From TrEMBL, chain A:
Keywords: ATP-binding, Cytochrome c-type biogenesis, Membrane, Nucleotide-binding, Translocase, Transport. It comes from Teichococcus oryzae. Residues 2-205 form the ABC transporter domain. This is Heme ABC exporter ATP-binding protein CcmA. The gene is ccmA. GO terms for molecular function: ATP binding; ATP hydrolysis activity; transmembrane transporter activity.
From TrEMBL, chain B:
It is found in: Cell inner membrane. NCBIfam families: ccmB (TIGR01190). Belongs to the CcmB/CycW/HelB family. This is Heme exporter protein B. Its main location: membrane. InterPro entries: Cyt_c_biogenesis_CcmB, Cyt_c_CcmB_bac. The chain crosses the membrane at residues 20-37, 43-62, 96-117, 123-150, 157-178, 190-213.
Length: 205, 216
Protein backbone atom coordinates (compact mmCIF):
# COMPACT_ATOMS: atom_id res chain seq x y z
CA UNK A 1 0.00 0.00 0.00
CA UNK A 2 1.38 3.36 -1.06
CA UNK A 3 0.51 6.28 1.17
CA UNK A 4 1.25 9.99 1.22
CA UNK A 5 0.57 11.43 4.66
CA UNK A 6 0.24 15.18 5.16
CA UNK A 7 2.76 15.87 2.41
CA UNK A 8 3.79 19.45 1.69
CA UNK A 9 6.11 20.46 -1.12
CA UNK A 10 7.77 23.81 -1.64
CA UNK A 11 9.28 25.05 -4.83
CA UNK A 12 11.39 27.99 -3.85
CA UNK A 13 9.11 30.09 -1.65
CA UNK A 14 5.92 28.80 -3.24
CA UNK A 15 3.78 26.09 -1.70
CA UNK A 16 2.87 23.60 -4.45
CA UNK A 17 0.56 21.71 -2.11
CA UNK A 18 0.35 20.90 1.58
CA UNK A 19 -1.56 18.59 3.87
CA UNK A 20 -1.96 16.17 0.99
CA UNK A 21 -3.23 12.71 1.87
CA UNK A 22 -3.46 9.86 -0.58
CA UNK A 23 -3.70 6.13 -0.07
CA UNK A 24 -3.49 3.60 -2.89
CA UNK A 25 -4.00 -0.11 -2.22
CA UNK A 26 -2.67 -2.98 -4.35
CA UNK A 27 -4.71 -3.42 -7.51
CA UNK A 28 -6.17 0.05 -7.15
CA UNK A 29 -5.84 2.90 -9.63
CA UNK A 30 -5.94 6.59 -8.75
CA UNK A 31 -6.28 9.24 -11.43
CA UNK A 32 -4.91 12.65 -10.50
CA UNK A 33 -6.81 15.51 -12.08
CA UNK A 34 -6.64 19.25 -11.72
CA UNK A 35 -5.78 22.37 -13.64
CA UNK A 36 -2.36 22.93 -15.20
CA UNK A 37 0.10 23.70 -12.45
CA UNK A 38 -2.01 22.12 -9.72
CA UNK A 39 0.91 19.85 -8.85
CA UNK A 40 -0.03 16.55 -10.52
CA UNK A 41 3.42 15.92 -11.95
CA UNK A 42 5.07 17.11 -8.74
CA UNK A 43 2.98 14.66 -6.72
CA UNK A 44 4.12 11.80 -8.96
CA UNK A 45 7.74 12.88 -8.50
CA UNK A 46 7.15 13.05 -4.74
CA UNK A 47 5.82 9.50 -4.73
CA UNK A 48 8.84 8.44 -6.80
CA UNK A 49 11.20 10.03 -4.27
CA UNK A 50 12.63 12.49 -6.79
CA UNK A 51 11.46 15.60 -4.94
CA UNK A 52 12.30 16.48 -1.37
CA UNK A 53 9.40 16.94 1.04
CA UNK A 54 8.93 20.04 3.17
CA UNK A 55 6.58 18.15 5.47
CA UNK A 56 4.97 14.76 5.77
CA UNK A 57 6.03 11.31 4.66
CA UNK A 58 5.61 8.82 1.86
CA UNK A 59 4.86 5.37 3.22
CA UNK A 60 5.04 1.95 1.65
CA UNK A 61 3.14 -0.69 3.68
CA UNK A 62 3.28 1.60 6.69
CA UNK A 63 7.02 2.22 6.61
CA UNK A 64 8.91 5.27 5.43
CA UNK A 65 9.43 4.60 1.73
CA UNK A 66 12.17 7.16 1.21
CA UNK A 67 14.42 5.90 4.01
CA UNK A 68 15.99 3.49 1.50
CA UNK A 69 15.74 5.22 -1.86
CA UNK A 70 17.30 2.41 -3.85
CA UNK A 71 14.76 -0.06 -2.44
CA UNK A 72 11.92 2.36 -3.20
CA UNK A 73 13.21 2.90 -6.74
CA UNK A 74 13.30 -0.86 -7.27
CA UNK A 75 9.58 -1.21 -6.56
CA UNK A 76 8.35 1.55 -8.84
CA UNK A 77 8.24 2.55 -12.49
CA UNK A 78 7.91 6.24 -13.29
CA UNK A 79 6.72 7.27 -16.72
CA UNK A 80 7.56 10.96 -16.97
CA UNK A 81 6.53 13.63 -19.44
CA UNK A 82 9.87 13.21 -21.18
CA UNK A 83 10.25 9.85 -22.90
CA UNK A 84 13.93 9.48 -21.87
CA UNK A 85 14.94 7.92 -25.18
CA UNK A 86 18.30 8.10 -26.90
CA UNK A 87 17.72 8.99 -30.57
CA UNK A 88 21.01 7.39 -31.67
CA UNK A 89 20.11 3.96 -30.30
CA UNK A 90 17.73 1.53 -31.93
CA UNK A 91 14.32 0.83 -30.45
CA UNK A 92 15.53 -2.44 -28.88
CA UNK A 93 18.82 -0.90 -27.70
CA UNK A 94 16.89 1.79 -25.84
CA UNK A 95 15.45 -0.95 -23.63
CA UNK A 96 18.71 -2.87 -23.19
CA UNK A 97 20.01 -1.06 -20.11
CA UNK A 98 16.62 -1.30 -18.36
CA UNK A 99 16.27 -4.99 -19.20
CA UNK A 100 19.72 -5.61 -17.68
CA UNK A 101 18.78 -3.60 -14.61
CA UNK A 102 15.31 -5.01 -13.99
CA UNK A 103 15.25 -8.22 -15.96
CA UNK A 104 12.57 -8.86 -18.55
CA UNK A 105 12.33 -9.78 -22.18
CA UNK A 106 12.82 -6.98 -24.74
CA UNK A 107 10.93 -8.59 -27.68
CA UNK A 108 7.94 -9.33 -25.43
CA UNK A 109 7.92 -5.78 -24.09
CA UNK A 110 8.04 -4.35 -27.63
CA UNK A 111 5.26 -6.73 -28.67
CA UNK A 112 3.11 -5.44 -25.79
CA UNK A 113 3.26 -1.89 -27.18
CA UNK A 114 3.12 -2.91 -30.84
CA UNK A 115 6.68 -1.86 -31.69
CA UNK A 116 8.09 -5.33 -32.41
CA UNK A 117 8.41 -4.76 -36.19
CA UNK A 118 10.42 -1.57 -35.57
CA UNK A 119 12.91 -3.08 -33.10
CA UNK A 120 15.97 -2.36 -35.25
CA UNK A 121 14.94 1.16 -36.27
CA UNK A 122 16.86 4.09 -34.70
CA UNK A 123 14.66 5.81 -32.13
CA UNK A 124 15.12 9.15 -33.90
CA UNK A 125 12.97 7.82 -36.77
CA UNK A 126 9.96 7.24 -34.50
CA UNK A 127 6.92 9.48 -34.45
CA UNK A 128 5.90 11.18 -31.20
CA UNK A 129 3.29 8.51 -30.49
CA UNK A 130 5.73 5.70 -31.22
CA UNK A 131 8.26 7.30 -28.86
CA UNK A 132 5.60 7.36 -26.16
CA UNK A 133 4.94 3.67 -26.82
CA UNK A 134 8.65 2.90 -26.47
CA UNK A 135 8.67 4.73 -23.12
CA UNK A 136 5.65 2.61 -22.13
CA UNK A 137 7.54 -0.54 -23.13
CA UNK A 138 9.75 0.01 -20.06
CA UNK A 139 6.65 -0.68 -17.94
CA UNK A 140 6.07 -3.94 -19.77
CA UNK A 141 9.60 -5.26 -19.15
CA UNK A 142 9.30 -6.66 -15.65
CA UNK A 143 6.54 -6.70 -13.04
CA UNK A 144 6.76 -4.05 -10.37
CA UNK A 145 4.25 -3.07 -7.64
CA UNK A 146 3.99 0.70 -8.25
CA UNK A 147 3.35 2.49 -11.54
CA UNK A 148 3.48 6.29 -11.55
CA UNK A 149 2.30 7.58 -14.92
CA UNK A 150 2.40 11.18 -16.09
CA UNK A 151 -0.02 11.63 -19.00
CA UNK A 152 0.61 8.09 -20.26
CA UNK A 153 -1.75 8.33 -23.22
CA UNK A 154 -0.47 11.56 -24.73
CA UNK A 155 0.04 11.18 -28.48
CA UNK A 156 -1.27 7.60 -28.62
CA UNK A 157 -3.68 6.35 -31.29
CA UNK A 158 -6.78 4.30 -30.45
CA UNK A 159 -5.08 0.93 -30.92
CA UNK A 160 -2.19 1.96 -28.67
CA UNK A 161 -4.58 3.19 -25.99
CA UNK A 162 -6.23 -0.23 -26.08
CA UNK A 163 -2.80 -1.84 -25.63
CA UNK A 164 -2.09 0.53 -22.72
CA UNK A 165 -5.44 -0.58 -21.24
CA UNK A 166 -4.34 -4.23 -21.52
CA UNK A 167 -1.00 -3.44 -19.83
CA UNK A 168 -2.79 -1.62 -17.00
CA UNK A 169 -5.30 -4.46 -16.51
CA UNK A 170 -2.50 -7.05 -16.36
CA UNK A 171 -0.54 -4.92 -13.89
CA UNK A 172 -3.55 -4.44 -11.59
CA UNK A 173 -4.63 -8.06 -11.83
CA UNK A 174 -1.16 -9.00 -10.56
CA UNK A 175 -1.72 -6.73 -7.54
CA UNK A 176 0.05 -3.65 -8.88
CA UNK A 177 -1.18 -0.16 -8.12
CA UNK A 178 -1.35 2.80 -10.48
CA UNK A 179 -1.22 6.53 -9.88
CA UNK A 180 -1.74 8.43 -13.12
CA UNK A 181 -1.92 12.14 -13.85
CA UNK A 182 -4.10 12.93 -16.83
CA UNK A 183 -6.39 15.37 -18.57
CA UNK A 184 -8.09 12.82 -20.79
CA UNK A 185 -9.96 9.63 -19.83
CA UNK A 186 -7.61 6.68 -19.42
CA UNK A 187 -8.41 3.02 -20.11
CA UNK A 188 -8.69 2.26 -16.38
CA UNK A 189 -11.74 0.46 -14.96
CA UNK A 190 -12.96 1.59 -11.59
CA UNK A 191 -10.26 4.20 -11.08
CA UNK A 192 -10.66 6.60 -8.18
CA UNK A 193 -10.27 10.27 -8.98
CA UNK A 194 -8.14 12.48 -6.77
CA UNK A 195 -8.53 16.13 -7.57
CA UNK A 196 -5.70 18.57 -6.91
CA UNK A 197 -7.03 22.08 -6.55
CA UNK A 198 -3.86 24.08 -6.54
CA UNK A 199 -3.27 26.05 -3.37
CA UNK A 200 -5.18 24.68 -0.40
CA UNK A 201 -7.14 27.15 1.70
CA UNK A 202 -5.40 28.81 4.61
CA UNK A 203 -1.87 28.35 3.33
CA UNK A 204 0.09 31.53 2.76
CA UNK A 205 1.54 31.56 -0.71
CA UNK B 1 26.86 -0.23 -13.00
CA UNK B 2 28.49 -2.35 -15.72
CA UNK B 3 25.17 -2.17 -17.57
CA UNK B 4 25.26 1.64 -17.41
CA UNK B 5 28.87 1.67 -18.61
CA UNK B 6 27.88 -0.53 -21.56
CA UNK B 7 25.04 1.85 -22.37
CA UNK B 8 27.43 4.82 -22.26
CA UNK B 9 29.93 3.09 -24.53
CA UNK B 10 27.20 2.14 -26.99
CA UNK B 11 26.02 5.77 -27.04
CA UNK B 12 29.59 6.97 -27.57
CA UNK B 13 30.03 4.51 -30.42
CA UNK B 14 26.89 5.94 -32.07
CA UNK B 15 28.15 9.50 -31.65
CA UNK B 16 31.88 9.26 -32.48
CA UNK B 17 32.01 12.97 -33.33
CA UNK B 18 32.34 13.92 -29.64
CA UNK B 19 35.46 11.78 -29.21
CA UNK B 20 36.90 12.92 -32.50
CA UNK B 21 36.32 16.56 -31.59
CA UNK B 22 38.26 16.18 -28.33
CA UNK B 23 41.20 14.46 -30.10
CA UNK B 24 41.34 17.05 -32.88
CA UNK B 25 41.10 19.87 -30.37
CA UNK B 26 44.05 18.37 -28.46
CA UNK B 27 46.15 18.10 -31.63
CA UNK B 28 45.24 21.60 -32.78
CA UNK B 29 46.09 23.22 -29.45
CA UNK B 30 49.50 21.51 -29.40
CA UNK B 31 50.01 22.52 -33.04
CA UNK B 32 49.51 26.17 -32.06
CA UNK B 33 52.62 26.22 -29.87
CA UNK B 34 55.19 25.94 -32.69
CA UNK B 35 53.42 28.86 -34.38
CA UNK B 36 53.43 30.92 -31.21
CA UNK B 37 56.93 30.36 -29.87
CA UNK B 38 58.69 29.64 -33.14
CA UNK B 39 59.87 26.30 -34.51
CA UNK B 40 63.22 26.19 -32.66
CA UNK B 41 63.47 22.51 -31.52
CA UNK B 42 65.05 23.30 -28.16
CA UNK B 43 62.41 25.82 -27.15
CA UNK B 44 59.64 23.44 -28.18
CA UNK B 45 61.12 20.55 -26.23
CA UNK B 46 61.26 22.77 -23.15
CA UNK B 47 57.58 23.64 -23.57
CA UNK B 48 56.39 20.17 -24.55
CA UNK B 49 55.61 18.65 -21.10
CA UNK B 50 53.45 21.50 -19.88
CA UNK B 51 51.82 22.09 -23.26
CA UNK B 52 50.86 18.42 -23.62
CA UNK B 53 49.23 18.20 -20.19
CA UNK B 54 47.44 21.54 -20.47
CA UNK B 55 46.12 20.76 -23.96
CA UNK B 56 44.93 17.31 -22.89
CA UNK B 57 43.06 18.68 -19.88
CA UNK B 58 41.38 21.37 -21.99
CA UNK B 59 40.38 18.80 -24.59
CA UNK B 60 38.96 16.49 -21.93
CA UNK B 61 36.85 19.37 -20.60
CA UNK B 62 35.02 19.77 -23.91
CA UNK B 63 32.38 17.02 -23.59
CA UNK B 64 31.92 17.45 -19.82
CA UNK B 65 29.02 19.90 -19.80
CA UNK B 66 26.88 17.43 -21.77
CA UNK B 67 27.76 14.59 -19.39
CA UNK B 68 24.63 15.06 -17.28
CA UNK B 69 23.06 17.91 -19.25
CA UNK B 70 21.91 15.69 -22.10
CA UNK B 71 20.53 13.12 -19.64
CA UNK B 72 18.66 15.77 -17.67
CA UNK B 73 17.12 17.29 -20.80
CA UNK B 74 15.61 14.12 -22.24
CA UNK B 75 14.39 12.83 -18.86
CA UNK B 76 16.94 10.01 -18.69
CA UNK B 77 18.51 11.35 -15.50
CA UNK B 78 15.29 10.88 -13.50
CA UNK B 79 15.00 7.38 -14.88
CA UNK B 80 18.64 6.61 -14.05
CA UNK B 81 18.12 7.85 -10.48
CA UNK B 82 15.21 5.38 -10.26
CA UNK B 83 17.06 2.54 -11.95
CA UNK B 84 18.21 1.07 -8.63
CA UNK B 85 21.72 2.50 -8.97
CA UNK B 86 22.88 5.00 -6.35
CA UNK B 87 23.86 8.49 -7.41
CA UNK B 88 27.52 7.67 -6.74
CA UNK B 89 27.32 4.56 -8.94
CA UNK B 90 25.79 6.58 -11.78
CA UNK B 91 28.50 9.22 -11.42
CA UNK B 92 31.24 6.58 -11.22
CA UNK B 93 30.07 4.93 -14.43
CA UNK B 94 29.81 8.32 -16.10
CA UNK B 95 33.36 9.27 -15.06
CA UNK B 96 34.81 6.00 -16.35
CA UNK B 97 32.86 6.34 -19.60
CA UNK B 98 34.10 9.92 -19.99
CA UNK B 99 37.69 8.78 -19.58
CA UNK B 100 37.28 5.87 -21.99
CA UNK B 101 35.79 8.13 -24.66
CA UNK B 102 38.11 11.15 -24.26
CA UNK B 103 41.15 10.42 -22.06
CA UNK B 104 41.87 7.08 -23.72
CA UNK B 105 41.74 8.34 -27.32
CA UNK B 106 43.88 11.34 -26.29
CA UNK B 107 46.59 8.88 -25.21
CA UNK B 108 46.65 7.42 -28.70
CA UNK B 109 47.06 10.92 -30.14
CA UNK B 110 49.80 11.82 -27.63
CA UNK B 111 52.74 10.54 -29.75
CA UNK B 112 51.60 12.71 -32.66
CA UNK B 113 51.33 15.74 -30.39
CA UNK B 114 54.66 14.84 -28.76
CA UNK B 115 56.37 14.67 -32.15
CA UNK B 116 55.00 18.09 -33.10
CA UNK B 117 56.49 19.52 -29.90
CA UNK B 118 59.83 17.75 -30.40
CA UNK B 119 59.42 15.65 -27.26
CA UNK B 120 62.23 13.02 -27.18
CA UNK B 121 60.96 9.58 -28.19
CA UNK B 122 62.25 7.98 -24.99
CA UNK B 123 59.87 10.21 -22.99
CA UNK B 124 56.76 9.09 -24.92
CA UNK B 125 55.82 6.13 -22.68
CA UNK B 126 56.04 8.29 -19.54
CA UNK B 127 54.15 11.06 -21.32
CA UNK B 128 51.31 8.67 -22.16
CA UNK B 129 51.22 7.36 -18.60
CA UNK B 130 51.21 10.88 -17.15
CA UNK B 131 48.51 12.00 -19.61
CA UNK B 132 46.43 8.93 -18.78
CA UNK B 133 46.54 9.60 -15.04
CA UNK B 134 46.01 13.36 -15.44
CA UNK B 135 42.98 12.91 -17.72
CA UNK B 136 41.54 10.27 -15.37
CA UNK B 137 41.87 12.78 -12.52
CA UNK B 138 40.12 15.37 -14.67
CA UNK B 139 37.33 12.93 -15.63
CA UNK B 140 36.64 12.30 -11.95
CA UNK B 141 36.80 15.99 -10.93
CA UNK B 142 34.84 16.96 -14.01
CA UNK B 143 32.04 14.51 -13.24
CA UNK B 144 31.65 16.10 -9.80
CA UNK B 145 31.76 19.55 -11.40
CA UNK B 146 29.23 18.58 -14.06
CA UNK B 147 26.84 17.24 -11.40
CA UNK B 148 27.24 20.40 -9.31
CA UNK B 149 26.67 22.82 -12.19
CA UNK B 150 23.76 20.81 -13.61
CA UNK B 151 20.75 23.07 -13.86
CA UNK B 152 22.79 26.20 -13.21
CA UNK B 153 22.42 28.88 -15.86
CA UNK B 154 25.62 29.17 -17.86
CA UNK B 155 26.72 25.89 -16.31
CA UNK B 156 28.95 25.27 -19.31
CA UNK B 157 31.02 28.35 -18.44
CA UNK B 158 30.98 27.69 -14.71
CA UNK B 159 32.26 24.14 -15.10
CA UNK B 160 35.81 24.90 -16.33
CA UNK B 161 36.13 27.71 -13.78
CA UNK B 162 35.29 25.20 -11.08
CA UNK B 163 37.30 22.24 -12.33
CA UNK B 164 40.49 23.66 -13.85
CA UNK B 165 41.89 25.24 -10.65
CA UNK B 166 41.45 21.91 -8.90
CA UNK B 167 43.35 20.21 -11.73
CA UNK B 168 46.50 22.31 -11.14
CA UNK B 169 48.26 19.58 -9.09
CA UNK B 170 47.79 17.16 -12.00
CA UNK B 171 49.41 19.69 -14.36
CA UNK B 172 52.36 20.20 -12.01
CA UNK B 173 53.10 16.53 -11.39
CA UNK B 174 52.27 15.42 -14.93
CA UNK B 175 54.53 17.98 -16.55
CA UNK B 176 57.28 17.27 -14.01
CA UNK B 177 57.12 13.55 -14.81
CA UNK B 178 57.41 14.11 -18.56
CA UNK B 179 60.21 16.62 -18.07
CA UNK B 180 62.10 14.17 -15.88
CA UNK B 181 61.72 11.44 -18.50
CA UNK B 182 62.89 13.77 -21.26
CA UNK B 183 65.89 14.93 -19.24
CA UNK B 184 68.08 12.96 -16.91
CA UNK B 185 65.73 12.74 -13.90
CA UNK B 186 63.53 9.90 -12.75
CA UNK B 187 59.76 10.34 -13.38
CA UNK B 188 58.73 7.76 -10.79
CA UNK B 189 57.97 10.04 -7.79
CA UNK B 190 55.87 12.39 -9.94
CA UNK B 191 53.91 9.51 -11.43
CA UNK B 192 53.31 8.15 -7.93
CA UNK B 193 52.01 11.55 -6.81
CA UNK B 194 49.70 11.65 -9.84
CA UNK B 195 48.54 8.16 -8.93
CA UNK B 196 47.85 9.35 -5.40
CA UNK B 197 45.67 12.18 -6.75
CA UNK B 198 43.67 9.69 -8.81
CA UNK B 199 43.41 7.31 -5.84
CA UNK B 200 41.99 10.11 -3.70
CA UNK B 201 39.55 11.32 -6.36
CA UNK B 202 38.37 7.80 -7.27
CA UNK B 203 36.09 7.35 -4.24
CA UNK B 204 35.50 11.03 -3.36
CA UNK B 205 34.47 12.52 -6.70
CA UNK B 206 31.66 10.01 -7.47
CA UNK B 207 30.33 10.41 -3.92
CA UNK B 208 30.25 14.20 -4.29
CA UNK B 209 28.70 13.95 -7.75
CA UNK B 210 26.13 11.45 -6.52
CA UNK B 211 25.11 13.73 -3.67
CA UNK B 212 24.81 16.66 -6.10
CA UNK B 213 22.61 14.61 -8.46
CA UNK B 214 20.33 13.58 -5.58
CA UNK B 215 19.99 17.14 -4.33
CA UNK B 216 17.73 17.94 -7.30
Amino acid sequence: MLEASDVAVLRGERVIFSGLRLTVSPGEAVVLTGANGAGKSTLLRVLAGLVGLAEGRVLWNGEDALADRAAHAARLRYLAHADALKPGLSVAENLQFWARQWGGDIPAALEAVGLAPLAELPARMLSAGQKRRLALARLALAPCPIWLLDEPSVGLDAASIARLGALLRRHRAAGGLVVAATHVPLPLDGAREHRLDGLPAGVPA
Amino acid sequence: MIALLRREMLLAARHPADTLAAVLFFLLVTALFPFGVGPAPDTLARLAPGALIAAALLAALLPLDRLFGAEAEDGSLDQLLLSGLSGAQIAGAKAVAHWLTTGGPLLLAAPVAGAMLNLPVEAWPVAMLALGLATLFLSLLGTAGAALTLGARRGGVLLPLLVLPLAIPAVIFGAAAIEAAAGAGTPRPFLLLLGALVAAALPLAPLAAGAALRAD
